[in-house]
Write a structure and sequence with these properties.
This protein has 480 residues and is mainly alpha-helical. Helices cover 68% and strands 6% of the residues. The protein has a domain of 186 residues.
Amino acid sequence: MTDGDTALLLARIQFAFTISFHFIFPAFSIGLASYLAVLEALWLKTGREVFLNLFKYWLKIFAIAFAMGVVSGLVMTYQFGTNWSVFSDRAGPIIGPLMAYEVLTAFFLEAGFLGVMLFGLDRVGKKLHFLATCMVAVGTAISAFWILSVNSWMHTPVGWALNAQGQFVPAAPWIEIIFNPSFPYRLVHTVIAAYLTTALVVGGVGAWHLLRGQKNEGVRTMFSMAMWMAAIVAPIQIVVGDFHGLNTLEHQPAKVMAMEGHYENHPDGAPLALFGIPDDDEERLKYALEIPKLSSLILKHELDAPMQGLKSIPKAERPPAEIIFWSFRVMVGLGFLMLGLGLWSLLARFRKRLFDWTWLHRFALAMGPAGFVAVIAGWITTEVGRQPWVIYGLMRTAEARAPIAAPAVATSLAVFVIVYFIVFGIGTLYILRLMHHAPHHGETSPAQAPIRTAGITPSTSMRRPPGGADERPDLTEEAQ
C-alpha cells in the first residue's frame, strides 16, 4: 500500500469516526426537540403539572445533547478544508450554498430561540416560551433538511455542469438540485428514525424506573407516550424504508446488490438471503440461508422479476458487500424488533398491564440504545454502499482526497479519538446520570438547576432546619 493509499484510508476512517460520533446527538435532539414541544403543548392545554415536570426533566438532557451535537459537528468543516479539500474545491459551487442555507435558516433559528427555551420558562410569557420551543424544534428539522439535501445530491447528482476549472456548478434551477431524486426518501426515513430513536430512549428510561419500582405519574406518562410512538411510527418506518430501497435500486443498483448479497444474476427471480458470509474476493455468498424469489418480490413486487448481481459490474465500481450486507441486516433486524416492542406494548395496554409487565419493561430497557445502533448501521449502509464514489458516478473518493501525508492524517485521527472519547464520554455519562433520577413533582429547569462550586451547592450551603430558621450565620453580627 502506497503512502497515498494509506492517507486515503486514514482520512476515510477519520471522517467515518467523527461523523458517526456526531450523528448520535442530532438523531436524539431532532426527536427530543419535537417531544419537548408536544409536552409543553399538552401542559398549556391541560394545565397538568406532570407534563411541565416531564418538560423540565427532558429539557436538561436536551441541552447537553444539543451542545454536544453542535460541537462535534464543527469538526466536519475542518475535515472538508483539510483531508477533503479537493472535494470542497470541485463541489463547492453546489455544496457551499446549500450548507450556507442551513446556517442562515436552521442555525440562526435555533440560536435565536434556544436561550429562551432553556432559561426563559419563568422569565417570559407561556405563549412566547412555547413559540421558542417550537422554533427550536422546527430549526432542528430545517437543519436536517439542508444537510440531507447535500448528502442526497452526492448520491443522486442532478442539475450540474463542469466549468473550465473542473468544478461542479449549477446548471439547473436550485429547486431541482435541492429536491434531487433520493432526497425526499432519505429525509423522511432519517427524520422518522430520529423520532424512533428518541422514543426508544424515553421508553428505556421509563422502563428503568418502572423496574426499580418508581411508578409515579411522570414515569408512567413518559413510558406510555414512548410506547405509543413505537407502536405507531415503527410500521410507518418499515414502509418508508421499502420505498427508499426501491429508489436506491433505481439510482444505485450496485448498492442494493451488495446489501442483498447478490453476486450472480438471477433471470427468474432473486432469493432473499437471511444469512450468509459474503466474500468479495471469491464473488459468492458462503453458507447462504435463502428464501427463493423473495428478494424479487420485495424489490420489484414480482416473484419472477429478473435481478442482476455484482458480477455484472466491473470490480473497480463495486461497493464492499462484506460490510454493507451486515450493516443492512443490523438496521432491518432492529427495525423489526422496534415493531415487536410497539405491538407488545399494545397488547399490554389491552390487558391493562402496561406498567406492571416486567418482561415488557426489560425489553424496552434493552431497546433503549437500539435507535442509535440502527441509525449508525443505516448510515454505514448508505455511505459505504456509495463507494467507490464520493459523488456517485462522477467523482471517486480517491480523487477527492487532499495531498496530505499519511502521518499527518494519523496524528489528527489519534487526537480526535482521544478527545472525543474523553469529552463526549463525560457528557454522555452526565446525561445518564440525569436519567438515573426519575422525574418528580417540582422538577427544576436548566435555569433553576443548582450550581456546584467547590463541592458546595445552594441546596447544601443554604439549608433551613425543620423549624424554618436560617442556618446561615448572622452576617450583621459577624461584621460587628
